[in-house]
Amino acid sequence: MVVLALAGCASIHGIQTGRTLDKGQFTATSGVEVGYVTARPLRTGMTRYDLGLRYGLTDDWEVGARVGGWAFVIGWAQVGADVKRRLVRAPSDREGWDVSVAVAASWDGVWGGWATGQAVTGQVPLLVSKNLPNRSELVFAPRVAVQHIRSRGAHPITKPLIGASFGWALHPGRFTLYPTVGVLLSNNPADPVSQLVTWQGGFGLGYDFGPGTSPKKRAER
């Protein structure tokens, strides 16, 4: 069950930053995350990767989808989707604050041997970006999440999670480079894997396919 708990942990890089894409803008994303979980009665680590697409529905609404896998493990897969709404818009990409809230869901499946099962995870992160003069962003993202796990030979369990991540998004040309670190905590007394702490580190890469069709483009772009 701890394998599913770790595999299904909320992604810290896939939803990107407090900015939203402009209307009609497409971005392709990829990333890798390394996690280490400490829980009673054991500790373990994992590495996972994903590929995704993001699209600007309007200047303030953005949707995304991704698929992923667990490095070095053949029988594991993940699919996820999210919607993001910008709440606060900065005057430009070089100053001020952008703040967004997102709702995301993902499904993880593990099959083969003792780890067979699935996990469904929902999360709501608040994405707060401080824009810097070079167009990069410092991103703080507190989040709450809930995870439902079903695995062979064990009772289903629902895990509440709370945590936060911190990242630095760089924007050289059409690319986005996004290193992040984060932590998620859970302590459900009914869970046989209790007092769970997941440490996460990730690196995301994005590529912007164009400026979109927004009539409200900011001058810096």
List the helices and strands and how they pair.
Blueprint: H1 2-7, E1 26-40, E2 43-56, E3 61-70, E4 76-88, E5 97-110, E6 117-131, E7 137-151, E8 157-169, E9 175-186, E10 194-208
Antiparallel strand pairs: 1-2, 1-10, 2-3, 3-4, 4-5, 5-6, 6-7, 7-8, 8-9, 9-10
Report on the structure:
With 221 residues, this protein is an all-beta fold. The chain has one domain: OPCA outer membrane adhesin/invasin (Lipocalin, Beta Barrel). It is built from 1 helix and 10 strands, in the order αββββββββββ. It starts with a helix and ends in a 13-residue tail after the last strand.
Task: Write a compact overview of the structure shown.
The protein has 221 residues and is mainly β.
Percent in helix? under 10%
Query: How far apart lie the N and C ends?
Result: 47 Å
Instruction: Determine Rg (CA atoms, Å).
Output: 18 Å
What are the segments in which pLDDT stays under 50 over at least 5 consecutive residues? none
Give the class from helix and strand content and strand pairing. mainly beta
- What is the overall number of helices? 1
Characterize the largest beta sheet: strand count, sense, and whether it forms a barrel. 10 strands, antiparallel, barrel
Average pLDDT across residues?
83
Q: Biggest sheet, strands in spatial order? A: 1-2-3-4-5-6-7-8-9-10
Number of strands: 10
Task: Tally the structural domains.
Answer: 1
Overall outline: elongated
CATH superfamily: OPCA outer membrane adhesin/invasin
Looking at the structure, the CATH topology is: Lipocalin
SSE order, as H and E? HEEEEEEEEEE
Which band does the percent of strand residues land in?
over 45%
| CATH architecture level-2 label | Beta Barrel
CATH level 1 class label: Mainly Beta
